[in-house]
Amino acid sequence: MNETGAVVADESQPENSQPENPQPEKGLPEAPEGVRDPWKGLRGIMAATLALEFITFLLALPVVWKFGGGVSSAGFVVVIVLSVLMLVAAFVQRRPWGLGFALGLQGAMILCAFIHPSIGIMGAIFALIWAYILHLRKDIAKRMREGRLYDQLGHPPGHPEGTD
């Protein structure tokens, strides 16, 4: 306000100017206080997906060995080692490097198409599932930044407290 009481706009920045850093935030946002952590749930989904991959690949090996034209002993060992690493990756999803480890295993399983095409196809199918999980991760981060997660919106009037 000036001396006459009129409101004067700040002339240090033009009205249509953009903030100095228009780039979106990097990294994942933190869950606000009092809100359930959505990252915990997503890490659970990723760990469960890895556990399902472990089971799927181990169950597929005997079938490929017997009916699919066979797999070499070295190929059999490679797929078993990668499968066990998937189970290990399921337990390290809360670590900062856990997601990268899991995605690297997906690439390795796709490369197992050189061992047997059906194993590579299964790896590609699981890679599509991981692409969807990454899409969900991006969407959750966007919603958190915008304050549009369900827990961030609050509860309707009359909602009993403590039943979350």
Automatic annotation (TrEMBL):
Keyword Translocase: no
Region Disordered: start-end pairs: 1-33
Name of a matching Pfam family: DUF4233
Transmembrane portions of the chain: 45-64, 71-92, 104-134
Keywords, in A-Z order: Membrane, Transmembrane, Transmembrane helix
InterPro entries membership: DUF4233
Record's protein name: DUF4233 domain-containing protein
Protein source organism: Saccharopolyspora ipomoeae
Phylogenetic placement of the source organism: Bacteria, Bacillati, Actinomycetota, Actinomycetes, Pseudonocardiales
